[in-house]
Each structure stands twice: as structure tokens, then as C-alpha cells.
Amino acid sequence: AQTVTQSQPEMSVQEAETVTLSCTYDTSESNYYLFWYKQPPSRQMILVIRQEAYKQQNATENRFSVNFQKAAKSFSLKISDSQLGDTAMYFCAFIANTGNQFYFGTGTSLTVIP
Amino acid sequence: DVKVTQSSRYLVKRTGEKVFLECVQDMDHENMFWYRQDPGLGLRLIYFSYDVKMKEKGDIPEGYSVSREKKERFSLILESASTNQTSMYLCASSKMGRGHHQPQHFGDGTRLSIL
Questions:
Q1: Which among B98, B101, B102 is the top mutation candidate for probing chain A, defined by the most A β-carbons within 10 Å of its own β-carbon?
Q2: Is the pLDDT of residue A76 over 60?
């Protein structure tokens, strides 16, 4: 079975600063996909960024980037130049290449302070 | 853009009632999912479906059933609602693709209270 662990239930960051959210996972699969999702307060969950395990290059989407360490089974999300709109719950998710089920972490609540 | 629509944002029901939560997606996605979201527990999968009339149990199927009679619609049924089923329920859909997984698209969620 796959497990996803987010060890930081809550974090805060000053506006314009950089913050890193951590995620680790456990799997015996060699091919898989990792995702970060964002759920703003009372709003829909949306995809932030996605990483394919066979790609060594870290994914980047504007101010969002990941640090993917396959050997360590670590997948952290870095948010640069934090904005008030980044305040949200962030979930890390995993799916094996051979599976149909997504596995989610317990989430990190991020607050951006003006 | 993909749209996943859940029939209610807020719902209040009584213990013992049969409760239906409806979810419709408009992008012809093969996969559909029902999760419940509780503080400190993240998202837990209740059921998912990868085709019409097909369903598979997730991690917490007890007390729930599902129905997928049409590709675009996936219903979650609480057979006899209990107070421990008070939660936020999220529906999601994704395109089929072993070896090329597409991300999930979520609905707005239904906050269900069982009194």
C-alpha cells in the first residue's frame, strides 16, 4: 500500500517571502506520479503542480516549484514570492503508474501574512 | 475547462435517513471518485469508478454505496445516515490512462451534517 505523509499541519509565511511545504511518501512502485493540490478556504481544490517519477528534472509552474528526491521519497513544494491568495490547504498526492487510486496526505494549512 | 458539479454545497439530514449525493462531470472522464475530507485526516477515498456500472471500494466504504448508471454521473448513497458521517464530501473525475495519469478535477464539495 502507498502512504503519503505531510508532517506540517500548519505553516505561515510573510507576504513576498518563500516557503517550503514538505511531503514524503512510501511505495514499492518504481513508476508513479506526484501532485500538489491547493484548496483555498471554501473553494474548489485545484491542481498546483505535477511531477512524473521517471523525470529527473523538477517541475516548475511560475512561482511554484518542487524538489523531487526519488531515492529519499521526498516531494516538497516551494512557493516563491508568497501572495495573500496562496493562503490555502495544500495536499500532496500520489498515484502509481499501474493504479487508478490516488493517495493523499493529511494536508498543510498555509497562511500568508500581510 | 472541466466542470465537476456537486448537487448541494450544504445538506442537513437526520440519522437513519437515506442520503443521496450527486456528482456530474462534463468532460467525458472515465474515472470518478468520492472522498470524504475531515480535519487532520486529509482526503479518504470512499469509492471510485472507472467505467459505467463499475465500482471499486476505497479505504472507507462501510456505510456507503455508489451508483454509476451514466458516464457523467456518479452518486454516493448513505444507506442509513449516522452522525459519524457528518463531513465534507468531495467528488472528483479524471481521464483514464494507465501510464499517463491525468490529474483529478474536483467539485466544490458538499458539507453534510447528520443530526
A1: B101
A2: yes
Identify the three-state secondary structure at position B83: helix
Burial zone of A24 (CB within 10 Å; 0-12 exposed, 13-18 middle, 19+ buried): middle
Give CA–CA dist A110/A30, Å, rounded: 31
Task: Give the distance from CA A39 to its chain's centroid.
Answer: 12
Q: Where are the beta strands (DSSP E) in B8-95?
A: 10-13, 19-21, 23-25, 31-38, 42-49, 56-57, 64-70, 73-78, 87-94
Cross-chain residue pair B42–A105, CB shorter than 8 Å: yes
Mean pLDDT value of segment B93-103: 73
Provide the Cα torsion A68, A69, A74, A78; round to 10°.
-40
Using an 8 Å Cβ cutoff, are A5 and A25 in contact? yes
Closest CA to B31 of B60, B62, B2: B2
Q: Is the pLDDT of residue A95 over 80?
A: yes
DSSP code at position A86: G
